[in-house]
């Protein structure tokens, strides 16, 4: 399916032969002009046309494709190309208009694990910070196959990719969150935390934190499902990202419990295991090298915040000078918001002039210098993260 790349060397030689920078501009002959325009147009991709062609392939029965020599690897390459096209919000929304969304969702049930995983990647890109496409995927019943893959697919990569797509689909999407809860989503997240895949655990923890942060009323439900015990176990993980994500979840639960029970009934006083966990983390942090201490900045802040929330007093990290190291600014930065919204896509979804991207074409954002998407994203209180929206994100 691959196409030959542009003959950039030939175009460069042609350009240099006609302009050395020392003379005045010359008028091109009709023959030269025609050659140049044909060379450039041959390398111009009509995105909508390509998306329609990809849609036709996705609509073609697998046995027909096999008979024509199309392999699963070819399908993966095709989905890679589609993912590049739908990185634009306009193109993502147009995929439904040209009939490509439903066939894409059908690939979530493909017998080949790599295709199921790649299809989830494309869905993640389509719905990320895109309310219109979130609605279209929900209306096409796209959440159901994603949930099925997340909870029961035999391939852990497929499960992880499906969870990433779910995170992006329900991000700032109340109907999506409601549907996820009604489908026993919290129980599925609890099961995911028991996986041996660290990457799968991270994605599950990030979604748990987002849901609790946005819906604090769910904290009692989560507590009843046994999350505190699981989170305390994961807070001692060898993986730093898992430890931090588990501590964030515990902090949300502790804060909500304090609101419900009052300051006189703090979560730590009722659970000696919490105090033991925090003391172990403080001890571990105290033994870190200077380099490791710098890398563990968020963990130090989370441990201190959790101790203060549970016991209404600062942790020993403060008095030992381990909370804010020399050269670090105080107060500590926000350790949560960056897990919620990738800034560039957030900027595109919340354009400053309030225009609808599907009805008005805008110039691409200037990525260098003042006034770019980073400022708009910061105005939204967001920062970038791996992959994953809480998120969400991006495929990884």
UniProtKB/TrEMBL annotation:
UniProt-listed Pfam families: Fes1 (PF08609)
Molecular function as annotated in GO: adenyl-nucleotide exchange factor activity
Cellular component GO terms held in the UniProt record: endoplasmic reticulum
Region feature (Disordered): 322-396
Compositional bias (Low complexity): 364-377
Lineage top rank: taxon: Eukaryota
InterPro entries cross-referenced by the UniProt entry: ARM-like, ARM-type_fold, Armadillo, Hsp70_NEF-Inhibitors, Nucleotide_exch_fac_Fes1, TOG
Keywords, ordered alphabetically: Repeat
Domain annotation TOG: ranges: 46-291
Protein name per UniProt: TOG domain-containing protein
